């Protein structure tokens, strides 16, 4: 598998900032070594060794465990970079390269990094009397809030391995409830009643500005101007 194939694939899909981050991960593949330490019916476990320099300029080895499923071509690294940042880490890319995986699967291509992804920050609704309602959607706020919450949960769960199944089930339940709530919102009929005044701005004609001084009809006219007009 050539990394250039994946690089070409994402160059057509990702926005430039995230594509450059992916390129940074590819550039660091030369610092990695790997070897398979376990193979159970196609579920392989690799040990990836990364060579880095410490503050004293000395080389240091970091070990990362990466699992690869031959049947599904699914890869998981212990560093959890994809879960937190949405981009496959160099350790996972190293194993995909060794397994001759030519292109990234859709599961590893995040739609929020794509070029044509449009973030909806507001929704506008109009009715027959010309009322406009602006409802902020807050995509960025919800994304950051959810990311922080999940990070905290994962950090707590990592210290208690027995809680893994419990937390995984909670995630599934939360997702199911959110899907049900959104489905109900989509199927609910749109109300024609006038919205709350706090959310409504009516389109009215602007007030007429009054100029300084007396109106022209009341201004004094000199006798010379009267004679000239006649």
From TrEMBL:
GO terms for molecular function: zinc ion binding. The keyword rRNA-binding does not apply. GO terms for biological process: regulation of DNA-templated transcription. InterPro entries: FHY3/FAR1, Znf_PMZ, Znf_SWIM. Residues 64-100 form the SWIM-type domain. Residues 208-230 are annotated as: Disordered. It comes from the Eukaryota. GO terms for cellular component: nucleus. It is found in: Nucleus. Keywords: Metal-binding, Nucleus, Zinc, Zinc-finger. PROSITE patterns: ZF_SWIM (PS50966). Belongs to the FHY3/FAR1 family. Putative transcription activator involved in regulating light control of development. This is Protein FAR1-RELATED SEQUENCE. It comes from Acorus gramineus.
